[in-house]
Amino acid sequence: MMSSMRSHISATEGAGKPRGGERPDRVLAQPFSGWTHKTMTDSIDDFLKASKLDDYAHYIRKGAFLAQSKAAFPKDRERSDGLTLEPTERHYLDLEYSTRKIDTFKQPWRLYILIACCSLGAAVQGMDETAVNGAQIYYQEAFGIAGKDGWIGLLNGAPYLCCALSCWLNYPLNRLLDRRGVIFLTCFISSATCLGQAFPQTWKQLFLARFLLGFGIGPKSATIPIYAAECAPANVRGALVMMWQMWTAFGIMLGYIAGVVLAGVRDGNNPEICIVDPKNANYHRSMLLTARCSLNWRLMLASPMVLPLIVVAYVYCLPESPRWLLMRARQGNKAKYEEAFLSLCKLRHTKLQAGRDLFLINHLLKGEEEITRNNKPFTELFTLGRNRRALTASVIVMFLQQFCGVNVTAYYSSSILVQYAGFSNRNALLVSMGFGIINFLFAIPAIWTIDTFGRRNLLLSTFPFMALFQILMCIAFRFRKGSNAQTVIAILAMYLFGVAYSPGEGPVPFVYSAESMPLYNRDFGMGIVTSVLWFFNFFLSITWPKFVTAFTASGAFGWYACWCVIGWWMILLFVPETKDLTLEQLDQVFQISTREHAAHGLSQLMWFIRRYMFRRRGIKKPIFIHKEDPDEVYMTGGSGYEEVEEEKSVGASTGVMMH
């Protein structure tokens, strides 16, 4: 594998065929390392014979040697076998190897269309979260459940209860259907069930429609990041895969906007128009369910149906995952070899790059088949130390995405502002819309920083501010209801929390979870961690109404402020950095024991305090230096000039330290 390739989430990266007696977690990410020219030539010939891709043999042969080493075609001398690069091929390879970050984003337009179209499927999740935020102000009156906190929480959390179950379908659905097939099916379900939310006449009917929506969100949330990863090149994979969360934030913003725009439809903001007989409460509720009085919240709940319809219409115009096609080809459908190559041609600038990735993916799939034949990928997630530590770190970041309290604002901000801060319905919706816009805009910087500053560093930098602004929310609700001080502080705290959350805990969990899992059990791992995410999403949504009643708004926000503090320590001690690491380095990182990682995290904290609080400049950063054996690692520290030591140390730029 090219030494410049990063691990990120690539399904084209992973294990080659394991050497005798080697455990799956020891398989390295350089499957062609040490191969002779004859070994490479024989392997290429075998692949061409099996795939019958003789028409593309020239590109595959050159690409295979490029997969072995990015220096396979030096500019200053000719190769002995006569293979050369065309000027166009060398130009695009120079872009790929460029150290200028902007060059990594010079990708084929088809790739960006694929990412944009598929990520629209994520927007329905975010849009539903915030569409129900405004709709609940009205439908709880219509269904006669105002003040019944348990029922309101159950309705809001119904899709995510289903997601916690439906995520387990990720593995069989991806084996039965292709990646595009799963996306098509789940987006169709999302659209149909969102439309179904517009017609219920009882809260039980609404619960059923929202529960079924979970079948359209759960498997999709695990499949879209994998599909994007398998199609994206390694040098920009982190930025493109985080589009899932980016478009989720976009959907959150659209949901808030829909709430503001649709609130006044058919006099929905005028409760007097629906009061026909104030002495007859049942008759009053029946009138609230008429089109004149309830069209606003029905349209809010149905509004997310449009975005997944776009995906349904266009997903089969996109290239299929090359890895999935090669997997089918290796199972006997030889025609899929050519489809995989043509798919890569659409997603790469040159046929040379397509041939390189095709040969590499095929080789790694061969290694994966060997691993899965001799081992049980699902059980190894829990039994092998490397996999167990990756799963633990992934579960932590997914859990904290919910328990930092962000979805309290996403689901309930409007009702909180109305009930506890004295806002009018419309003003509450407008303030909530501002949060949605901030949540989207401040996720944009993560496109750049997630692959430069690093995943772990983004989390460590933002969690203290998230805790601070949740505490500010606690203070806001200690003021007199409806006072100017309460209004200003509540809005300021809500918006600043969105600023801190959006570039860190927002995009990192899905990127981190997928890339930390080994190739051979990635489907299993993503199914588990997304199930954890949705379970705690449901848990938060169903418990908040009772929680805020029992502990008051101030105490409830204080609870999530505490979790932000706890989360910072969990990340420091148990979540290693994964950006800019090859899979070989990633295996080494997760091979290190939890105790050693925790000790290293504490040493990082002490370095940070001495360097930035006590202004001691001559202190060397504690870093892990990885030796050839994944078990042979040691931590450096002491005195010295940190700038010099960072450049000398292996992995110093990987982010496995606190900046």
In short:
With 659 residues, this protein is an all-alpha fold.
Can you walk me through this structure?
This protein has 28 helices and 2 strands. It has 3 domains: 1-106 and 320-374, no CATH class; 109-318 and 381-574, Growth Hormone, Chain: A (Up-down Bundle); 592-648, no CATH class. The protein is mainly α and 659 residues long.
- Radius of gyration (CA) equals 26 Å
Shape: globular
Uncertain parts: 1-28, 626-659
The CATH superfamily label of the largest domain reads: MFS general substrate transporter like domains
Q: Termini, distance in Å? A: 30 Å
Tell me, rounded to a whole number, the average pLDDT: 80
The total domain count is 3
Trace the largest sheet across and list its strands: 1-2
Write down the secondary-structure element order: HHHHHHHHHHHHHHHHHHHHHHHHHHHEEH
Strand content: under 5%
Protein name: MFS myo-inositol transporter
Pfam families: Sugar_tr
Domain Major facilitator superfamily (MFS) profile: 114-579
Region (Disordered): 1-27
Task: Quickly list its features.
globular, 659 residues, 68% helix, two-stranded antiparallel sheet, 3 domains, mainly alpha, Growth Hormone, Chain: A, disordered C terminus, 28 helices, disordered N terminus
